[in-house]
C-alpha cells in the first residue's frame, strides 16, 4: 500500500487534502508544516510549505496523483509515491475500505 508525498503552499494544502479524501482517493492525509529550500530558475529559494502524506491504495494512487496535478498551484509540484512494506493489518484494512 502506498503513501503519496506531496508538498504544497500553505494556502492550498487544506483544499488539496480535503479534495483527495472527499474523492475517496486517500483514506487520510496528514499535514506537516515545513520550510523548503530549493533551486528554481537558477536561484536558491526558501518557502514555507506543507507536506501532505496521503494514505492510499495501489488501485487509487494513479488517480490521486493525476487529481493533485490538476489542482496543484505549482508548475512543477513535488509528488512522490512511497510503497510501504510493513503496515499494521488493521490500518491496511481501514485504508482499503476508505478508498474506492
Automatic annotation (TrEMBL):
GO terms for molecular function: copper ion binding. It comes from the Archaea. Keywords: Cytoplasm. One of its GO terms (biological process) is response to metal ion. InterPro entries: Ion_tolerance_CutA, N-reg_PII-like_a/b, N-reg_PII/ATP_PRibTrfase_C. Belongs to the CutA family. This is CutA1 divalent ion tolerance protein.
Amino acid at each position: 500500500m502506498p503513501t503519496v508525498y506531496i508538498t504544497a503552499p500553505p494556502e492550498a494544502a487544506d483544499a488539496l487534502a480535503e479534495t483527495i479524501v472527499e474523492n475517496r482517493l486517500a483514506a487520510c492525509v496528514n499535514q506537516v508544516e515545513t520550510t523548503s529550500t530549493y533551486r528554481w530558475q537558477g536561484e536558491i529559494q526558501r518557502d514555507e510549505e506543507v507536506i501532505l502524506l496521503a494514505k492510499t491504495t495501489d488501485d487509487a494512487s494513479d488517480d490521486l496523483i493525476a487529481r493533485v496535478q490538476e489542482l496543484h498551484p505549482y508548475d512543477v509540484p513535488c509528488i512522490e509515491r512511497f510503497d510501504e512494506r510493513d503496515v499494521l493489518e488493521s490500518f491496511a484494512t481501514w485504508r482499503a475500505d476508505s478508498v474506492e
